[in-house]
């Protein structure tokens, strides 16, 4: 299994979670679970609200990468979809290539509701309290 593909998959999953409003602990946990399920050793992940770092050992070599996520929004649907992909990969139902491909599709999905409708719903909900 390619360490680059493992790294890319883990960081993509983590960045989708983080930039769509997921908690940092969920980001760290998801990346670590995917890396360990892919057979990586000495897995360490760290997340802050604006960046994620992942390191692991593969075939005796250490690999570390950091990704910044400066823009954030709230899209719980994407977080749920990433969690589903993670569970499927860890459970052996899909392989790493399928997981990466699916994560790319999730990342490119547009918001379900347009911004104007989100703002209208927020204003309506705020006014009804």
Layout of helices and strands:
Layout: H1 3-19, H2 24-37, E1 41-48, E2 51-58, E3 61-68, H3 76-90, H4 96-108, H5 115-127
Antiparallel strand pairs: 1-2, 2-3
Helix pairs in contact: 1-2, 1-4, 2-3, 3-4
How would you describe the overall organization of this protein?
The protein is α+β, with helices and mostly antiparallel strands and 129 residues long. It has one domain (3-127). The protein contains five helices and three strands. It has helices at residues 3-19, 24-37, 76-90, 96-108, 115-127; strands at 41-48, 51-58, 61-68. It has a three-stranded antiparallel sheet with strand order 1-2-3, covered by helices on one side. The longest helix is centred in the first third of the chain and has 17 residues, at 3-19. It is elongated and about 60 Å long.
């Amino acid at each position: 299994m390619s360490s680059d593909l493992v790294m890319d998959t883990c960081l993509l999953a983590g960045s989708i979670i983080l930039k769509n409003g997921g908690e940092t602990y969920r980001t760290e946990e998801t990346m670590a679970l995917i890396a360990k399920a892919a057979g990586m050793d000495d897995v360490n992940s760290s997340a802050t609200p604006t960046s994620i770092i992942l390191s692991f050992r593969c075939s005796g070599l250490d690999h570390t990468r950091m990704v910044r996520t400066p823009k954030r929004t709230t899209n719980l649907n994407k977080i749920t979809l990433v969690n589903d992909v993670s569970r499927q990969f860890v459970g052996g139902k899909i392989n790493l290539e399928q997981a990466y491909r699916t994560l790319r599709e999730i990342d490119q999905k547009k918001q379900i509701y347009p911004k104007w409708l989100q703002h209208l719903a927020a204003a309506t909900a705020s006014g009804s309290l």
